[in-house]
Amino acid sequence: MRIGIVTSGGDCPGLNAVIRGAVLHGQESYGHAFMGFRGGWRGATLGDAIPLTRQTVRGISKLGGTIIGTSRTNPWEFGGEGAVKDSMERLGVDAIMAVGGDGTLAVAKRLHEAGIPMVGVPKTIDNDLNATDMTFGFDTAVSIATDAMDRLRTTGDSHGRCMVAEVMGRNAGWIALHSGMAAGAHAILIPERRTTADELVGWVESAKLRGRAPLVVVAEGFVLEGEVAAHSGRGLDAFGRPRLGGIGERVAELIESRTGIETRSTLLGHIQRGGVPTAYDRVLATRFGMSAVDLAEQGSWGSMVALRGTSVIEVDLTDALDEPKTVTESRYLEAQRLFG
Amino acid sequence: MRIGIVTSGGDCPGLNAVIRGAVLHGQESYGHAFMGFRGGWRGATLGDAIPLTRQTVRGISKLGGTIIGTSRTNPWEFGGEGAVKDSMERLGVDAIMAVGGDGTLAVAKRLHEAGIPMVGVPKTIDNDLNATDMTFGFDTAVSIATDAMDRLRTTGDSHGRCMVAEVMGRNAGWIALHSGMAAGAHAILIPERRTTADELVGWVESAKLRGRAPLVVVAEGFVLEGEVAAHSGRGLDAFGRPRLGGIGERVAELIESRTGIETRSTLLGHIQRGGVPTAYDRVLATRFGMSAVDLAEQGSWGSMVALRGTSVIEVDLTDALDEPKTVTESRYLEAQRLFG
Amino acid sequence: MRIGIVTSGGDCPGLNAVIRGAVLHGQESYGHAFMGFRGGWRGATLGDAIPLTRQTVRGISKLGGTIIGTSRTNPWEFGGEGAVKDSMERLGVDAIMAVGGDGTLAVAKRLHEAGIPMVGVPKTIDNDLNATDMTFGFDTAVSIATDAMDRLRTTGDSHGRCMVAEVMGRNAGWIALHSGMAAGAHAILIPERRTTADELVGWVESAKLRGRAPLVVVAEGFVLEGEVAAHSGRGLDAFGRPRLGGIGERVAELIESRTGIETRSTLLGHIQRGGVPTAYDRVLATRFGMSAVDLAEQGSWGSMVALRGTSVIEVDLTDALDEPKTVTESRYLEAQRLFG
Amino acid sequence: MRIGIVTSGGDCPGLNAVIRGAVLHGQESYGHAFMGFRGGWRGATLGDAIPLTRQTVRGISKLGGTIIGTSRTNPWEFGGEGAVKDSMERLGVDAIMAVGGDGTLAVAKRLHEAGIPMVGVPKTIDNDLNATDMTFGFDTAVSIATDAMDRLRTTGDSHGRCMVAEVMGRNAGWIALHSGMAAGAHAILIPERRTTADELVGWVESAKLRGRAPLVVVAEGFVLEGEVAAHSGRGLDAFGRPRLGGIGERVAELIESRTGIETRSTLLGHIQRGGVPTAYDRVLATRFGMSAVDLAEQGSWGSMVALRGTSVIEVDLTDALDEPKTVTESRYLEAQRLFG
């Protein structure tokens, strides 16, 4: 069988380990051949692809990003299933392995229903898929954010400042929750929870009273009391205009104006998603890539891989389209007990 | 309630996060006080303890080791339950939280049966406890080993050498399995699996043939074909004498003599267990410490915490005494597909 | 002798190693005692100080920040030399070791002239002092910036984007120059050099043409063609108003609008100055602290330590007040040969 | 001009940055072409070489090792200057850039005298060349050793053990000196200094008395009192036989037997020389590669590059053959003040 791989959506540490795991296992165990569609669904509709051989994937599991590129292209703007089928026929590709988030997997589901043999590998750096215990990339993002906060803290301590770190997470606060717990943050602000300004000020002042330089973690999708959530995660001001500056900056302003404590914010941004994946993510991603090939070998079209406990299992592609896995109240309250 | 904490056995990244999680949560949520017995069970029998307060545990979750010290002391060589009860009475300690591996937890079980209120937190850097999906410390050890192999590989590539890395794992090969998968090793040798010299040589030569510098990971407890396993994991030679040098060196000699490929071995040793814990281990250990306090608050004596999927649950202390969780055949075969 | 240590200005990796080196060497070799003034010159004027003993400085050379705190306080707003002399008398302090940048060292010079025995240790994370070949903290900042760019690059490659990284450097572009060279940037923009928009666009397009995702490093003090430099390093727009957003964002907008290449900017911010110092900075800072004690022991008041080649030497405090050491044309042209 | 590059001797972080710096600068500034001889002088005598283009050297400065391979081949065992000249003629190579240690540079000198246009780049991970203030690779080795000791220390502290770390350095103790200073070691043992067992025991016991877990760093070439130095750095026992085990193990045995303190040794080995170079080493190596091309362009045959202060200068190849730069008494005594 010749399998075409698509990586789509934002890049995520571990994508290359998925590709390597799939190619090595598929070639050695089953004799499959692999093509990599370049630049996400764009490559799949245009037939822009490169062969993926043992040689191509050599040593790539420790590289960030994806060697076949990615994009947010919607295939229905480029001919949809017809174009994809044409590409596959032209390139002799029999099936597609789609690696991506809920958007990508929805596409994969629809293409599957249109008759294209399709298996999926879930990918979300935010770890917000109900279908799987963990997604690769999340552990790397949490590590980078934690390391950054370990650094910010020493500056806060030296100057007696409050430090605010803004991390990824538009709809789910998992990165903020885990990195904040790991770094010993005094407050964690996430989209799922409407923390009031008074609560926040209380935690910050309590930490300050005990002689600490307060550390606050904010997920980009957090909405401040009195602001209206906007798609961009930036909120609207009282006149309904998008706020300038990120949520981290606005939280810092609020803290400084309410407490008088000098406060600085740092937006971690793109450094959270690139570079060398952690060992955890390399192992998980490699196993996902290998198991997705097993699904293809078994003809389990329309399914995808997932982690349950320590096992990689098969679930339906539709499982990826469930409500996102947001931070539960019990997990938030658990973390909150360490605030202040 | 006043709770005494014991950390016992080999040190492990995350121990301090357990202590911090327990103290902060216990003090803030329930008003408990905490004492730390110094140097494992030694401190518990002698009554050698320090108060653990919010101030004491400040900022410690990112420190390796354990601030209260550890040892391999057997309490029955120092008075057993009687001595422990005396210490507790003298210090006003009502219950003990024991953090340790199967040996420590067996001690905890026995003390519990002797009437001492006891809760447990499992600790094994080898991740070989059936009662829990994961133990803290393991992720840090795998990270360090993977990072070391990423480094060894570039030396191997530059000189056309085979590189052998010996990692921890006397009875279970999880560290070798995960770090080997993460680093893309061409062979992984673990105690659970009697790999023959021919198999090993086959993998090494196959990698060499494809132009790679072969990378081999060996768990310290691996037993070479023709050698007899010894308690020390060092094996016996043909005369029944313990072999000099570690298993890594002997594997390197075998490879060099059988294939003619210049081979170097590196024993990672103690660097695998010390230093800054990964974010993953800090979060898991913090949650374990907090949940163990919940067990104490509920009076669930004789129980311990464990990870199941993404939830921290309660299991019986006896569950820690099951057969160790060794690498299953299916997990090994999964990894083996990437060898050679 | 009793020596008071002041750390003043922005925090910088290595400050604690200076303190430790001074205290251990001063106490063991000469029997000196040490006090740490808290929060920079504020502590020196108010007499707010803690004893610094062998115990206090234990293990601190690997900690970021400064254990005695820092501030940008100007002592002449708090009583000047009179207040400092009073503090010293009250605390029995005979001499001051001032650790700081050009501002701090100018203060030290003036206090020295007012009769206060004073030795200096130069500190600037920007490495822009002519008096010394290197300052501690710079190597750590360059390491962190380089690591961040290694990460950004994989995201750029995966999406075919241009990535812009804004690093520290208001007046001197050394951090940008070194991290950009280390990370293989396609353009480096520094305050010392008025790069035109056409030059920049040329480098970016040349990299893109060769199939690279362009990586651009901008020092915060860089001034774009057509903008007017402002003290804040933020520039003024055509109406003379300070520009919103950092220079990194504006450079990204220019690149995207002129080339059509999707471009993202990241402001590294405070993570560059905190956290564990590199081994290089720990060694240099330790040697500086030790040598500053030697200066005090010799009564070389009004002097400070500096690195010349591999030797720590004595220079006059006034040497720190020379023109800043900015990036020379030859060093910039050397780097520029690798652009595009 | 077509320049052939040779990397020879042990691998060293930064070799790839030398190659990239030379190729990019040589091609863009002067229109030179480059060949890489494979496997050190072996490739130069056999004419085994690959073209080095802008594409070949893309992104390699952050990779450990050398993409053209290395070896310890002596060219006079493979035809000497005659064979090298034949290779050069066959491949159209006009000059050679030799990157290596004193052995390699002696070869380069001799080939230069035999009429082969030759420039040199000094390389020694031990930093023991008088001709240059610093060599690339050293900073990376010191970083890795320091990081390892930071880890070992937490294990020592938790168990109350003395930890011994054996680092590289057969003839010069720079790596031990710098990593030991950075990590706050209580004793540093180097080949240049015959520390007595009594001195060592004194430092260890003094640290223990103050409640510290002693940390001892030993360079591999250190010779214990009463042992005879051997070429292998392993020493001879009382019967003149090479001692089994490394010097680290023997030092650990001595400490344990003399002080009764439980002691563990770790041999850092090959992990010190591989993997991602530090930013410092990447910058220095890039500058060395670029400047060596300038030497070739100017026809400065028989010369090599060196660092003096912050400048890259030209020195004679013979300067590399001076007495090695060993640790001076003053630098050792400076470090020694922090022992115990």
UniProtKB/TrEMBL annotation, chains A, B, C, D:
- Enumerate the residues binding Mg(2+): D102
Q: Which reaction does it catalyse?
A: beta-D-fructose 6-phosphate + ATP = beta-D-fructose 1,6-bisphosphate + ADP + H(+)
Annotated EC: 2.7.1.11
Cofactor(s) for this UniProt protein: Mg(2+)
Gene3D superfamilies tied to this protein = 3.40.50.450, Phosphofructokinase domain
Q: Which Pfam families match?
A: PFK
Residues at the site labelled Important for substrate specificity = G103
- Function recorded in the entry: Catalyzes the phosphorylation of D-fructose 6-phosphate to fructose 1,6-bisphosphate by ATP, the first committing step of glycolysis.
Q: What is this protein called?
A: ATP-dependent 6-phosphofructokinase
The source organism is Candidatus Agrococcus pullicola
